[in-house]
Design goal:
alpha+beta, Arc Repressor Mutant, subunit A, three-stranded antiparallel sheet, 8 strands, AlkZ-rel
């Protein structure tokens, strides 16, 4: 995470470079690498959301970067002990109830803190579609996991006759809708252990019951705090909200005195 990325095209390079450094500091990049699952859970709680693997532009916080330790010993498989630890954490954190894991932020493997997840989950009493439009296969998988409990993706692939690509597409679909979470692994066949999935409703059974406007406002404040400053585009990309809705949420927070606009359409908490 060394580049301020494409945001330099939208403002002064000096100002954006300074913001980039503030973000890295906010994400703990100036602190020792995360070394335990407790520290990883604390990191997710602190920033609210993170990609599993970051990118060169440091678009959002990333667990891999917070845990990166280039001095760690190399394993026979070719990667370091730091990556090996982090790879295990992503499977263990949901089982412990410490983080939701699935393909959500930017459509990539992501971690959400339980608090942020509770703000993003739909609320049935408000008429939000708790189960949105899904493909027939995704509905079949969701129904099976809801009925049987944590289920390995290898078993799902075999029983439904899915190839790896089709199974990943279904998993992506359910993750984007926050309907399932990674939930450990199981050695139920040859090769690598299989990913296990569980329904979000059972793994994290406490969605925030407040009206949607309040929940979305608090979710946006989580993002503003993590990003130091952010615009509607970043809010939209992170939480999969329509751009207009993201802008409306930021404007409501400003009117309420909880956020304030800064340069180039960005906002920060007050």
């Amino acid at each position: 995470m060394t580049s301020p990325g494409d945001e330099d095209r939208h403002g002064g390079a000096g100002a954006m470079g300074a913001l980039h450094e503030l973000r890295l500091e906010r994400w703990g990049m100036d602190r020792p690498p995360l070394a335990t699952i407790g520290e990883a859970a604390g990191f997710v709680d602190d920033v609210g959301f993170a990609l599993l693997f970051g990118d060169a532009d440091a678009t959002f916080p990333a667990l891999r970067e917070a845990a990166r330790d280039d001095a760690s010993a190399r394993l026979p498989a070719g990667w370091g002990e730091d990556l090996d630890r982090m790879w295990a954490w992503k499977d263990e954190l949901p089982v412990l109830g410490r983080a939701w894991v699935g393909r959500f932020v930017l459509g990539r493997q992501s971690l959400l803190s339980p608090r942020l997840l509770s703000l993003l989950l739909p609320c049935a009493r408000e008429g939000d579609p708790v189960v949105p439009d899904l493909s027939a296969t995704a509905r079949t998988v969701l129904a099976r996991v809801a009925a049987e409990g944590p289920t390995s993706m290898r078993a799902i692939r075999q029983d439904l006759g899915l190839n790896s690509r089709s199974a990943q597409k279904v998993l992506d679909e359910l993750g984007r809708a926050l309907l399932v979470t990674n939930y450990g692994t199981v050695q139920d066949g040859p090769g690598w252990p299989s990913c296990v999935i569980e329904t979000t409703a059972r793994a994290f059974p406490d969605p925030d019951p407040r009206p949607a406007a309040e929940r979305r406002g608090d979710a946006a404040l989580v993002l503003l705090d993590a990003m130091v400053e952010a615009d509607a585009r970043q809010l939209s990309r992170a939480f999969r909200w329509p751009r207009r809705e993201a802008k409306d949420v930021l404007e409501r927070l400003t009117r309420a005195g909880l956020a304030e606009p800064v340069a180039e359409g960005r906002y920060r908490t007050r």
